[in-house]
Structures are given as structure tokens and as C-alpha cells.
User: What shape does this take?
Amino acid sequence: MRILLVEDDESVARSLRRGLVRFGFQVEWVATGHAALAADSTYDLVLLDLGLPDTDGLDVCRALHGRGDGVPIIVISARSDETDRVVGLELGADDYVSKPFGVREVVARIRAVMRRVRPVTPPEAAGPDRYGSRLTVDRKAARVHLDGAEVALTPKEYDLLAFLTEEPGALMSREQIMEAVWDANWFGPTKTLDVHVAALRRKLAGAIAVEAVRGVGFRLVVVEGGAGTEGRAGAPS
Ligand code: CA
Assistant: This one.
């Protein structure tokens, strides 16, 4: 997934880009509003700082939204003013993050916005998503098949697999997974997550690997090479 980062503060931009790349995103960084408007629009989402040197970020927001190409915009700003937040959202921003923020918070917002603006299964591409040659996930029916045979998953095991397969290869933190799969405001122990990961590894052995990244979280990897590992069916090119 490609992100256009519009941020004039170099240190903020560099650390944010580094963090987003670590989570599997491609990041194109520009430092001015004019460069943002001149950038080719093949990105999937815009992260837009409001305090830019050449133009007001809100004007950039309005102009980007006015293109009508549906590319979502998340405003990032040091201005904690509620007015900015409201105006930003009125001008077409999809979400708003206040500085200072953590990379994980930004990643969580990006994923939430993408889920909202781009439903997982577009109607014209209905059908199971394929991961490698062995595994399919039918998100409409909430059914999983391995080598053509349905795999019996508990509802939470299915939810976990559905979440991790949204972006194969991306590192998901424990907190993100707990928030997405269990509860929006999870602050408790995450042992149940390990239990469910172990179940997925057992039931889907050989088709996917769920790699643990110590101290951070998990990353789903499609085991086989070859056709079909680039992404799920219906994913935009
Ligand atoms: Ca700025």
C-alpha cells in the first residue's frame, strides 16, 4: 500500500516514514502543499500535516478531496484546536491524528480508514480470497478452505485469520490485533492471542506461517511461492 506523506518537518517525516515502512507500507514523502498536489495520484492514502510552509494544509485537504478520486486523507497536526479537526473533516479528511503521536497509532488509523473506505470484498470481486495455492478465505461466508477442504475454526480464530490476512507480511502489534479482533479498548493480558495463534498454526500448517516478533506482535506469511501470493483476489492494483 502506497502512502503520500505531506510533512515539512524533516525529523517527524523521517521517523514516521521509517515506522510506516517497518509496518509494510510504501511511503512517498513531500514537504510542501504544492508538491502534494503535484504528486501523481497512484497512492492509496494521504497523511497530511496542516502546518505547511507554502500553503495552509486545510486548502491542500480541500483540493485533494475535490479531485473526487476517493483517496482517503488523514490529517496530522500539531494544532490541537478542535476547530481544525472539525474543519479538516468537513473538507473531506477521513480522520485526524494530533501530534505528538506514535507510529502504531497512525498505523491503526490508516487500517481503520482503509477498512471503512475500501470494503474487503468489493461486490464485483465476490468470492474467496486466495493465499498461495492452498488457502482460501471467503470473507462473505466466513469460511476457510485448505486444499479444498473446509477448516473448522472457532469464531475468534476466524476473526484473527481474517485480520492477519488483510495484509500478508505486515507486522501487526499485539495491541492492534487485540483491538481489532477482541475489543476496541483492550488493555489486559494478551495470552488468549497466543492460544489462538497456536491454533491457527496447527490448523493451517504448511499453508501459512504466523511469525512472532518478540516484544511487538505477529506477521502472517504465505508459505508457498508461486502464483497467488501477491495478494488477495480483488485487491486493487
Ligand atoms: Ca508542519
